[in-house]
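[agent] plan:
  1. take the single chain provided in the ticket
  2. run structure prediction with default settings
  3. attach structure tokens to the ticket
  4. add a short note for the reviewer (M.T.)
[agent] executing step 1
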Amino acid sequence: MGAAYNILSQYLPFIRKKPAIDRDKVLKACPVRHPAVRFERGEDGDMRLFLPRRKDRLAKALMWVFRAGPEKEIVLDEVGSDVWEMCDGSTSVDAIVGAIAKKYKITRRECETSIGVYLKTLGERNLVGLRVAGSSPSGSGRNQASNRGRSARKKR
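[agent] step 2 finished; step 3 output follows
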């Protein structure tokens, strides 16, 4: 079963198991904003994120049919705006949790859960990524491992 899984996971990426990160590593990790996302704070204090749309032919046709602009706008509330501003790549999740818990006077455990879910949602939408201490910012270990697998196959 193990050998079959290894062979299939090389060709079917959706089969790969995601590496589990323990709570301590997540709290030490630093959230980093996606560089393509433009943002600005509105007059009412809410943060507005502007996501660029795809540029392929299908996307252009759909934008023309639905009269959509070149960017998608997402409006964050006050708490979301505060978290977004702290996702600068140098502030850890633990520091963000502490600052939000202190500012809004909620328990640390409650804040940790809420911020964790919020960062997970932002990560699923590819707006934020977590940089874990000791990882290189240029690429992930998965890409390096898959490159090694390709070179091993070529040698055969």
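[agent] step 4 note for reviewer: Residues 138-156 have pLDDT under 50 and may be disordered.
[agent] ticket updated
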